[in-house]
Backbone:
């Protein structure tokens, strides 16, 4: 094993990561002894204390153990996975849960959120290079490939959720946002026809891909609906006889509160559809209609990639689930 220390992180961390990598690629099998503290100290020109701390870090991670007559040895074949998502939300938790419940205990997932910060996204990817067996990454944006991903071995990367860019080198499991929106609205056409107008509530700073907006407009024009787009829930602009398509869940809460103040009934006086399902939407009022992908299925496909190294290249179906609100 060659190891050139850099100034970006401590020697302890770099040595622990290098040993972990060798274990993960099978250089040392479970039960195999690891090189001695003195041997590694001489080989890499570091202190015995550095080696001791590196072994202790691996021991805390459950990768190695020690015994008086055996020294340090591999206790388990641990597979380290980076799961990098954009922001926390209930459906992202659902995705994480679907992945972890399909994996055995020796698969260790490190969950990070890049918070839609390009700087943070790049830093997490850069710092993770060589530290993980596999990388499950929700790209920084939907429409543009992030060049920082070129630092990773594409055979070890699964792109999640976002991916409207050339990605044939990678495994991916994504959802659609553009034609998919049009198709979902077509399936609910008869419900939409209960209303004279459709309003898309789309925040200016939304992480939701803006590329879906032309498809919303095309649906309305193709089916003779007056329409408009607003960035916030404006109480003075809410109109009876209108259906609202809402991206942000906090906007849905504002919308329901304001319509209740007006005495309007969802599904009758006004209609509403929101993106991304949550369990509470099934029981709120008479049920909130949603446009949603199957994050459980996305997680199951991701887990299968981890376990088998199959190379999925699929889009998870997104559908309109009709409930009482439309």
Residues:
């Amino acid at each position: 094993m060659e190891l050139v220390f850099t100034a970006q992180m401590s020697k302890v961390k770099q040595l622990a990561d290098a040993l972990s990598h060798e274990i993960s690629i099978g250089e040392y099998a479970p039960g195999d002894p690891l090189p001695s503290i003195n041997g590694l100290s001489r080989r890499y020109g570091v202190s015995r204390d550095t080696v001791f701390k590196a072994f202790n870090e691996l021991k805390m991670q459950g990768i190695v153990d020690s015994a008086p007559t055996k020294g340090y040895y591999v206790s388990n074949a641990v597979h380290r996975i980076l799961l990098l998502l954009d922001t926390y939300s209930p459906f992202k938790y659902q995705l994480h849960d679907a992945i972890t419940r399909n994996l055995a205990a020796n698969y260790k997932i490190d969950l990070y959120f890049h918070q839609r910060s390009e700087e943070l996204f790049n830093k997490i990817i850069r710092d993770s290079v060589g530290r993980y067996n596999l990388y499950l990454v929700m790209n920084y944006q939907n429409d543009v490939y992030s060049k920082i991903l070129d630092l990773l071995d594409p055979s070890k990367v699964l792109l999640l959720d976002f991916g409207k860019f050339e990605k044939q080198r990678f495994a991916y499991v994504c959802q659609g946002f553009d034609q998919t929106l049009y198709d979902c609205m077509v399936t609910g056409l008869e419900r939409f026809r209960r209303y004279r107008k459709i309003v898309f509530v789309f925040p200016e700073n939304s992480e939701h891909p803006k590329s879906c907006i032309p498809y919303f407009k095309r649906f309305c024009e193709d089916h003779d609906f007056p329409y408009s787009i607003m960035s916030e829930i404006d109480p003075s602009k809410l109109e009876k006889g209108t259906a609202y398509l809402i991206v942000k869940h906090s906007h849905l809460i504002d919308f329901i509160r304001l319509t209740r103040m007006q005495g309007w009934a969802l599904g009758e006086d006004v209609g509403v559809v929101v993106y991304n399902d949550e369990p509470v939407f099934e029981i709120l009022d008479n049920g909130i209609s949603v446009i949603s992908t199957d994050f459980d299925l996305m997680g199951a496909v991701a887990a299968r990639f981890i376990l088998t190294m199959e190379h999925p290249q699929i889009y998870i179906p997104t559908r309109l689930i009709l409930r009482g609100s439309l």
